[in-house]
Amino acid sequence: MAQDTIDEILKAKRQAEKPAEETAKQEDKFFSVLGGEGLHEDFLELRMREGNWTCFSYSDLMWFNYDPKEGCIDLAFGEFMVQIKGRGLVPRLWQGIKNKRVAWLKESDEEMQDHKDNETFIEGIFITPPSASEETASESAE
Asked: Is the omega angle on the peptide bond into residue 68 within 30 degrees of 0, that is, cis?
C-alpha cells in the first residue's frame, strides 16, 4: 500500500515537470545551456544558418564583452573574434558562457523567428579570423 502511494507521488511529480521542460526547450532554440550542477563544456559550438558548424575551445577564450547598445557579445578565442548579435543575450546566455555551460549557439534561420515567444533571438554569428598581415608579421618576428 505504501509503495502505491510513493509510485503515485513520483508519477505526479514527473507529469508536473514535463511541461516546464517543454517550455524551456521552446525558449532555448537559439542556444543550449547544460542543466546539471558541476557540468561544463570543453567547446562552444556555433551553428550557422548555411549549415556550417564551428567549435572553439573554452580554454582559448581570453575575454568577452557585452555591448547593450549594439546588442552583441564579442568573444576573443586566441586571435579569432566571434560576435553574437541579437536580443535577450543577457543574463542567461552571458552567464552560460561565463560558466562554460553553453553547448551550442544557433543563428536564426529567418527574421520571423524574432517574436515575443522567444526570450532570446540570435540574428547572426560572425567569425573574424586573424588577418593575413598579422600572420605575416608574427612569422617574420620568428
From this structure: no
